[in-house]
Amino acid sequence: MPLFSGRCLSTAKLVGKTALVTGCNTGIGKETVLDFYKRGAKVIMACRSLERAEEAKTDIETRCKDLPDTGKIVLVKCDLTSLKSVREFAQNVLDTEPQINILVNNAGVMMCPKSETEDGFEMQLGTNHLAHFLLTMLLLPRIRNSTPARIVTVSSKAHTRYGINFDDLNYKSRNYNAAEAYSQSKLANVLFSRELAAKLKEHNIEGINTYSLHPGVIKTELGRHLNETLFWGARQIIGFVLAPFIKSPELGAQTTIYCAVDEKCAKETGLYYSDCAVTSPAPKGLNDEYAKKLWEKSVELVKLGDFNPFTAADPGVKTV
Ligand SMILES: NC(=O)c1ccc[n+]([C@@H]2O[C@H](COP(=O)([O-])OP(=O)(O)OC[C@H]3O[C@@H](n4cnc5c(N)ncnc54)[C@H](OP(=O)(O)O)[C@@H]3O)[C@@H](O)[C@H]2O)c1
Q1: Looking at the 3D structure of the chain, how many domains does it have?
Q2: pLDDT tens digit string along 241-284?
Q3: Which atom of ligand 1 is nearest to the CA of 219?
Q4: For 41-154, where are the E strands, in sequence order?
Q5: What is the pLDDT of residues 45-90, one digit of tens each?
Q6: Alpha carbons 45 and 76: distance in angstroms, whole number
């Protein structure tokens, strides 16, 4: 455990607010849901396995059973390896949730063997960035009607190691490198959050702030592919070497929670955080040309077409 670890000290309540967290049946996402639930929020858990999500929900509710004023947890299936699933999920949420005040793009996959999403994207870019890009775009008309709202994207310090290869984003022609592909996807998270803030400003949209962050080195299931992509025993050896720096999932969720609820950063947008404080991302994470190029490429890859999330009307919930 590191000597210092940032903590969100805000006692802000989320009664009457709705938060949506992706990939939250375990790890940092689950701790984020627990915190929002304790603050009284309605929390939508967007998970690919409803069975695992149900287990997490039951655990959270059991742990909080004696606490006053807890919120409500709703499970909705969302598999980020499929744009169809993301679209169905977004439609489901738009049909049923009158507001979305907090969106946490948390789900992630790290250093998996070479593989593709249903839509032919490299697995890490597709899951960590493109699916979250599409989800955010589809929900934006509702988020615009739910201000003050915050959009938090969980990146990683791993974004500093490599760059984005715009000529071959999906490793169709270059040799696959699992660490490089993870880094590319996490740099995409930083650039997306930055460019989203810029585009909201360009469209004179006020009351939606964006944040990207590094959670620290956290003891979660994220290293599940290391033995396959590096060598047998890699996960255990890396865990041993990094032991003095490894934090619990509860501490790992603190910067996400800070960005999502803390009054201290309520006026900040487009910035990058670590240990509950603003910090500087890698120079490439500050490159506006890069950010714009990634945005355009993402619009094209997820087939956003003519849909303009900054001007499109909120379709409203479905009434039966
Ligand atoms: N742990 C760290 O040290 C660390 C450091 C820097 C950044 N991060 C970032 O923190 C975030 C959370 O990771 P974690 O450490 O909590 O890892 P984790 O324990 O492996 O949790 C990842 C979550 O993402 C979900 N997920 C993966 N692929 C998905 C998909 N296709 N559709 C929907 N959900 C999917 C997983 O669901 P399943 O259980 O169904 O697979 C799981 O709930 C990630 O973005 C990661 O890159 C973590």
Answers
A1: 1
A2: 999 999 999 999 999 999 999 999 999 999 999 999 999 999 99
A3: 1
A4: 42-47, 72-77, 102-105, 149-154
A5: 999 999 999 999 999 999 999 999 999 999 999 999 999 999 999 9
A6: 6
Q: Which two tokens stand for residue 168?
A: 């071959």
Q: Does residue 91 contact residue 68 with C-beta atoms inside 8 Å?
A: no
Selection from 143, 52, 160 nearest residue 105 by Cα: 143
* Closest C-alpha to ligand 1, atom 47: 108
Q: What is the pTM of this model?
A: 0.98
**Structural domain that includes position 199:** 18-301
Report how far ligand 1's centroid is from the alpha carbon of 221 (Å): 7
Enumerate helices (H) and strands (E) in the chain, giving the number of each: 11, 10
- CATH code of residue 150: 3.40.50.720
Pick the closest to residue 31 from 68, 23, 133 (CA basis): 23
Return the H-helix or E-strand segment holding 137: helix 131-144
Dist. CA 316 → ligand 1 center (Å) = 31
Non-local (6+) Cβ contacts of 167 within 8 A are none
CB of 79 shorter than 6 A to ligand 1 = yes
